[in-house]
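job 3f2a | input accepted
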Amino acid sequence: MNSRIVLITGANGGLGQAIARSFLDESPENFVWLGVRSGREQADELAVEFPERCRCVELNVAEAASWRLAVAGIISAHQRLDVLVNNAGKHQDGLLATMPLTAWEEVLSTNLDGAFHGCQAVLPTMISQRQGRIINIASLSALLAPPGQTNYAAAKAGLVALTQSLAKEVARLNITVNAVCPGYIETGALAGMSEEERKGAQSKIPMRRFGRAQEVAAAVRFLACAEASYITGSVLKVDGGIY
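job 3f2a | predicted structure (243 res):
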């Protein structure tokens, strides 16, 4: 199979855009769906740039019904779905002692519940195909939890555990499930850091630099390729050697 149908959530951010471009560059036969809800300007631009091979689909990752509708539309168009990249995520950092309940619930809903709903939505098709790739974008915070991120670290750690458990459940069906844990990556998420904060963060990285979104995208693309068919339940760090 030379062509693949790919769905990427959180496709309007820097990391989602890099992952989408990586699949579009991989093969002229690939078709990439960009799951977006709001703030979709970059996703729309990418769809215009590749009008024959890329399209946006309305998707609220926190709602199971939205997932079912989005996946049904993709299946109707292509009769298959080969790769799901659960990339949607959000931060609402703060100390646990004073964290609003909404900050806990919204971060868990987007980062963990969203992946759960996504996996449930695509698995019937992948099971019937007896083939599929699911890549969950977790975070270094899942493995090395920092202060001020109890909600985000818990959600991403849960995503790692979900990945490893689900991988065992579907391994015999030629469906692989893996997680990627990026460290400090040059995207909009780091835009609010001061120069002093950037230098402090880089001093903790053995490579002494932040990663590029394209470097994370390359790891995602590898885990989705045929050559990675014996890799499942793995957690791949892309962090410059921090941990």
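job 3f2a | The chain has a mean pLDDT of 93.
job 3f2a | closed
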